[in-house]
Amino acid sequence: MFDILKSIQADISSFRAEVNARFEKVENRFVGLEELIRKQRRDTAGLLVMAKGTAGHFAEELAAVEERVKVLEARGR
To answer: Is the pTM of this model over 0.70?
Structure first.
């Protein structure tokens, strides 16, 4: 009986060690994913700023071209 209890205790102990090791690996993966998500958010915010700047510049250039077309049309009349 005592040997059986010792065996059960050893099994529980090894199972607990395996579970703790797996949880530690999972937690480390979550930390890595959180860091990756933060980096992706920063990168996306930077791209958004660049896109807005580019769109603003394009809108300015387009407005200038439209103004020049209006002037040319006015001359032609």
So the answer is: no
